[in-house]
């Protein structure tokens, strides 16, 4: 059974940074494509960033240059480093593997 557990969300001021973590059991991240999604109130869930098993990455246009997805194979953990945060980045962020979703971690960007 695949389990994904996100952490690292919180309240941050505009321009600040957060690093989200997604730890996995039941799946080996380096053999799979892993993505970070987010869902803001009243909006559909959208892809923020993804990393393939080969390490290729892609990002939503709205976060390019500000967010970075990375992977620690030894810890079987994927990260999302978020810099220069904006109020419009406020959302619940979810980690996704081919067969599972995490429970989400809330990010609030507000002064």
If you had to describe this structure to a student in words, what would you say it looks like?
The protein has 111 residues and is mostly beta strands. It is built from no helices and eleven strands. The strands form two sheets. Strands 2, 4, 5, 6, 9, 10 and 11 form a seven-stranded mixed β-sheet that branches. A four-stranded antiparallel β-sheet has the order 1-3-8-7, with no helix packed on it. A hairpin with a 2-residue loop joins strand 9 and strand 10 (100-101). The N and C termini lie far apart (40 Å). The mean pLDDT is 96.
Low-confidence stretches: none
Number of strands: 11
The chain-level mean pLDDT equals 96
Strand content: over 45%
Task: Considering the chains and any ligands shown, give keywords for the structure.
111 residues, mainly beta, 7-stranded mixed sheet, 4-stranded antiparallel sheet, 11 strands, globular
Offer a quick outline of the entry.
The protein has 111 residues and is mostly beta strands.
What's the structural blueprint in terms of helices and strands?
Blueprint: E1 3-7, E2 10-12, E3 18-25, E4 34-39, E5 46-51, E6 57-59, E7 67-72, E8 77-82, E9 91-97, E10 100-101, E11 105-109
């Amino acid at each position: 059974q695949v389990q994904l557990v996100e952490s690292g969300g919180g309240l941050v001021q505009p321009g600040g940074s957060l690093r989200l973590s997604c730890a996995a059991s039941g799946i080996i991240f380096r053999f799979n494509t892993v993505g970070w999604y987010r869902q803001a109130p009243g909006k559909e869930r959208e892809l923020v960033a993804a990393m393939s098993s080969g390490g290729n990455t892609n990002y939503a246009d709205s976060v390019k240059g500000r967010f970075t997805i990375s992977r620690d194979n030894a810890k079987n953990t994927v990260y999302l480093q978020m810099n220069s945060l904006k109020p419009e980045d406020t959302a619940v962020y979810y980690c996704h593997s081919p067969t599972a979703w995490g429970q989400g971690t809330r990010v609030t960007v507000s002064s």
